[in-house]
Amino acid sequence: MAEAANRTADGSHRGSPYRRADRPVRHAVVIGGSLAGLLAAQVLADHCDRVTVIERDRLPDGPEPRPGVPQSRHTHVLLEGGQRTLETLLPGLVAELREHGAPRIGMPSDMVQWQDGRWYRRTRATAHLLTGSRPLLEWLVRRRVLANPRIDAVTGTEVVGLLGDAARVEGVRLRARGTGPSPGPEQLPADLVVDASGRGSKAAQWLVALGAEAPHEETLDTGLAYTTGVFRGIHDGTDSSGYYIVPNPRQPFGAVVLPVEGGRTLVTLSGLRGSEPPTDSAGFTEFAARLPHPLVHDWLLKAEPESAPHGFRNTANVRRRYDLPGRRPAGFLVTGDALCTFNPVYGQGMTVAALSAAALRDTLRDHRRTPTTRRVQRALLRASQQAWDISAGADKTMPGAEGNAVASRAVDRPATWYLARVQQRSAGDPVVGAAFRSALSLSAPLSVLFTPRVARAVLFGPAPSTPSAPPMWREPEDHPAAD
To answer: What's the rounded Cα separation, in Å, for the pair 302 and 120?
Structure first.
């Protein structure tokens, strides 16, 4: 078995609201050492004597991609809701990201954006993205979390099953990876097990093996695929920081051009099933010519490639309903992508990982209610609900969407009509746009779109004018319609 990457727990106990019949939680195991798992471990360390993170990969010493995060080479953004939440979990982390070169992009002021047939006005920024690479963020989080003396990491090791029965999980079965024939799985007892193993979670099979029930699974898949290349960015002579072409049912091709640390620029191109962007350099550039405007294609013709493009195809929205009634054991939770995963094109995953950890923290701190397994699992699902509504709601309208969550209910039609008007007006109306961005950035609830000022503009206001060509310069702050 791989050695622990950190010191053992200090032996003291601060108490935990999670309790067995005879004693408080002493040891928690977190399956998966990515963002969701690391942040869950950080929270659990306040309630356990010891937390062990089990990770299949050998973790790099720096901000490097690793096999267990196949999308790590692609464009990632940390939404404003994620930035705020991370600061409550790991104070000072956002400043560390900035110190290591993660760019901060103001929306809509810094971005040339096309959506639903309209160019967005580049008015004063009301939301900001951090566009540093996924390996950078994960490395900084990992460094902070594993410095906690209560948290150990066991790497190069995979979980192959659960200990216990249908009433309670009591640990995990482990197997070292890459060491040749093994005499059999080892056992690691635990009072609480948290599955943060990502999209490929095998928790459903593990539960069935214990005699428990697998969760109902909701799926919605547009068949979207994307390919990302790394470039030494050229300066286009304007004050824009990036380009964003958002696909829709009538125009299914998308593009994101964003800076990352180190003076590099990531370019991600996307298309639906049957129109996947290629992974060779020439084909990648040629594919960009299919976008509704040539600005990304023109940029690529001048840019200097730093790596061959990498593709990613596993983009379905999948939600596993562990919160629903069923025969499932106590002492087992699921979080992160193992619980709810989204079409990555919406950039929500890292933010939801932070929101889920905050939900775990808040539920365990709530001394008014006993944090039963089901109650905590419901809180974790609620943390991902808004992101699911946005991602699945948009993907339902895309041609060729498949899955048992595709169908729309009649009761949803008025809201769908209203949200379409919100999107139409967000490109040119700063008031509607600000509300729309705050909801998409998961920094405000969807109800912000129904406040009186926004509703008046959406329902009764005229369709605002928008730029007729890509707006390559920000609007002046004192523009009469900039606020």
So the answer is: 25
